[in-house]
Prior knowledge:
Blueprint (H helix, E strand, L loop, with lengths): L21 H8 L4 H12 L27 H19 L11 H12 L8 H8 L18 E5 L3 H13 L2 E5 L8 H4 L30 H14 L6 E2 L4 E7 L4 E6 L4 E4 L1 E4 L22 E3 L13 E5 L3 H10 L5 E5 L6 E2 L9 H10 L3 H13 L22 H17 L4 H7 L11 E2 L3 H6 L3 E4 L3 E4 L3 E4 L4 E3 L2 E4 L13 E3 L6 H5 L18 E3 L13 H22 L1 E6 L1 H16 L27 H7 L8 E5 L3
Parallel strand pairs: 1-2, 1-7, 2-3, 4-18, 7-19, 8-17, 9-10, 9-17, 10-13, 11-12
Antiparallel strand pairs: 4-5, 5-6, 14-15, 15-16, 20-21
Bound molecules: NADP nicotinamide-adenine-dinucleotide phosphate.
Amino acid sequence: MTEVDAPRALADASGATPSRDRAALARAVEHANLPTLVAVLFQLTGDRAWLADPYRPTRSRGMDDNDDGGFPPPVQARIRAAAVDAVLAWADGRPPAVPAPTGDALVELMSLAVGEEVPAEYAEMTAEDMGFAPAPARAPRTGSATGFSVIVIGAGVSGMLASIKLTEAGIDHVVLEKNDDVGGTWLENRYPGAGVDTPSYLYSYSFAPRAWSTHFGKRDEVYRYLRDVAERHDLRRVIRFGTEVTAAEYHAARQRWTVRTADGQELTANAVITATGQLNRPKVPALPGLDAFRGPIFHSAHWPADLDLTGKRVAIVGTGASAMQIVPAIAGDAAQVTIFQRSPQWAAPNDVYFAPVGDAVHHLMAHVPFYSRWYRTRLAWNFNDRVHPSLQVDPEWEHADRSVNAINDAHRRVFTRYLTAQLEGREDLVAKALPDYPPFGKRMLLDNGWFAALRRDDVELITEAVAEITGTGVRSVAGTEREADVVVLATGFETHKLLHPIDVRGRDGRSIREVWGPEDATAHLGITTAGFPNLFITCGPGTVLGHGGSYITIAECQVRYIVDLLVSMIDGGIGAVECRPEVEAAYVRRHDDAHARMIWTHPGMDNWYRNDAGRVVSTLPWRIVDYWSMTRSADLADFRTEPVVR
Ligand code: NAP
């Protein structure tokens, strides 16, 4: 299997290439995810027996893959044997009985594969993701895009995607990237232990699957994946590297944007797509003494390439997702790790966090028709929206201090049990590490060895925020002082200063910073905002996922919407589209109302999702399936439009 498989458009709808190697297949099915295999069996044979007991798997508990489906061993053996026969028959030329289920048929099959009732509203989104229904791919009429151009800012996950989809639509564009390579956050964040905590088979573009080496790809592999995608789509052709955008200004009379770069370039285009992410600009706390420290001191996103921590005393400030990955990765190499924790984090277990995927599973993904599709769909079900209903505040709930409803409270019990088991015999650590706020109130983390690291003699957890950096170490607000040779500021990102530090000016020269204020960005669908015609934002306000799932799914929704709108402009002779203020205001009202009923406004904790005024700026309050529907196509009625000026 190649590193990046054939693009969806070229692949068979089954996503697999035939292999007649019975022995390899028989070996591989021993490692199969059986709920996935049952769905495959039905598609290949059309035999409804596979839809009923004893072949109905149980549902996953938590984020578990549920590989054995809860089937007794004899049933497992029957499924595997039948799968070998059916797959070989397919490889010999027998077409699948149900090659592309959609609508009710797909929902029935999804419900089988995930072991619980799936609502009908998931059918369309899933059919497109699985390649069973064509994804709308609009392109301008021949010739109509002539002279229309777009500037994309950023060549990370979203900017690369925008470029791929603009190219597919035949829309002329250039991508400006401040770094010397693609990858954005995955290029920049090289700290030890860096990697995804969304399963890689889900955290991949829908059109570019990969044979991942581990279930949760580490940074180098994610970065390689993005480079491979860039190669395959020849993206470097349209990217200008080392080109940092400093300003973008709209000229209403000409219906064009002018973009300026740090190295003095000035480019113009009809539209601008920003793809600068929300986790891009490191947030360094204004601690006294930052300049006084005598050794290396740096933000987690600026990890020095040649830093050797062997025998060093390392102080880590922060306990977010970055620190959670750094500490287990460096403990043992460093002589001593001291963590300064302002607030503890909830962390969930995951059995396959470090597990290799292995040849058997790669064989199944490559040669068993529909296997990779169903495997991803099951992940999407478990990781995307499943937890969303449990994040709604129950106003009647009597334990509002510790959880937001009965299910959230049950989650609390599960994660508490896990934490106390991990720290068994260390009541001191339990007291320090157990959060008192509701689980999911801050971004939920996966335990990657964090609790095991806390137990080590050479790791110390200090539950005091940092007050000051001294010449030789770190001092907490309570006066606790620790010497250190290296200080890591794992203190997060400027998530609310969207588009910062670019000076974006729309109609009449108005700065987006003035319109939004320093930390209160709003946009219709998180994509488009009144006063800024022909400006489209990816990873904009209210579109980060707090409840789970893969951000790439959201990026695909946004880029599809933007390209749809651009095609409408081009074909319709429209020179400017500007979101109607009342449309944006209504959207923001719905967004804020939804958040007011959700967990991230709970007063028990701070999180990077909301600003100092308490308004949630970063996260999506809806399910992914809702956002998918909202962004399926762009409605011109939501915009003031102007005909092209000649
Ligand atoms: P973060 O979640 O914002 O965490 C920053 C940490 O620094 C918090 O623990 C914060 O404490 C602490 N902090 C800030 N100022 C402090 C001070 N003066 N003294 C002591 N502690 C201080 O940042 P992050 O860990 O870089 O993660 C940001 C986001 O990036 C994540 O939520 C996630 O979306 C993404 N990310 C993902 C992965 C992954 O996929 N595995 C890995 C890394 C990052 P408080 O909690 O008290 O504010």
